[in-house]
Specification:
mainly alpha, 2 helices, flat
């Protein structure tokens, strides 16, 4: 299966809260799909995110 890529931008939640929610989400996926599942989650600065958004909007 090919890797799927997602970009998520969130507001109204703290960095600690989104980290906790993503942790639960990733744990649930690991339990559901076992060894088939793997993921990389990258946090980024606001400046880096703005550069990504600019590239995506080109």
């Amino acid at each position: 299966m090919e890797r799927q890529y997602f970009y998520i931008s969130a507001t109204g939640i703290t960095e600690e809260e989104i980290t906790e929610e993503l942790s639960h989400f990733m744990t649930d996926l690991t339990r559901k799909y076992g060894e088939k599942f793997g993921a990389t989650v990258l946090g980024m600065t606001e400046d880096a995110a703005k550069r990504v958004e600019k590239i995506l909007n080109e």
